[in-house]
């Protein structure tokens, strides 16, 4: 457990960004970027007989505010996804909303992001029953082969390096203005060039956004609808831990 107590990884991976310069270390990769960095520091990790416990800090190491994904399920108990990576040996724990999905939801999927000011730290904990089984909202589940030991853990946390409530409000207002002028576009053009209309549809407009956040202090937290990657700008902080042994057990079909 002690070997994981002070693992520090910096990452700046945006959905719209280019390549990131990286350097190898004993514990993973450290991108050579000093601007807009988000730090993940593991305080403690323990894989016991029945539970995997991971305690870590998320720090805004930039000079501007960021908005960090707190939960991918505001109306449900699933705060994060847990699934087996395509390589068959990596367990992924993911808290992000701007990800692809092949799943159909008959009710709006909503997540929550919280504000971190410059230099502020958020302390988080994750606990998984062992053996781990998949729990997903967006990801595909691979067909299972029964119990196995996974040797790598990847933690992904989404964040926006800007005023997220302000960003969403501006998009919704612009979409409403466009529609109020009676302007119309074909579905193909809308989906390809005007993703703001997809955002407006999933939020159910500005009124829907305000209704979802009726109990939120928008200076500190915001509820965000899943928009099928239409709400651009989310970045990803990623932590990789190697050389561990995590029991994983799933022998069902893919879904």
Your description of this structure?
The chain is of the alpha+beta class and 255 residues long. It has two domains: 2-162 and 233-249, no CATH class; 164-225, no CATH class. It is 16% helix and 40% strand. It contains four helices and 14 strands. It has helices spanning 164-180, 187-193, 195-203, 205-212; strands at 7-11, 13-14, 22-25, 28-31, 38-47, 51-60, 66-71, 81-84, 90-95, 110-116, 121-129, 146-160, 221-225, 235-250. Strands 2, 7, 8, 9, 10, 12, 13 and 14 form an eight-stranded mixed beta sheet that branches. The protein has a four-stranded antiparallel beta sheet with strand order 1-5-6-11, with no helix packed on it. A hairpin with a 3-residue loop joins strand 5 and strand 6. Helix 1 packs across helix 3 and helix 3 (195-203) packs across helix 4. 32% of the residues are buried.
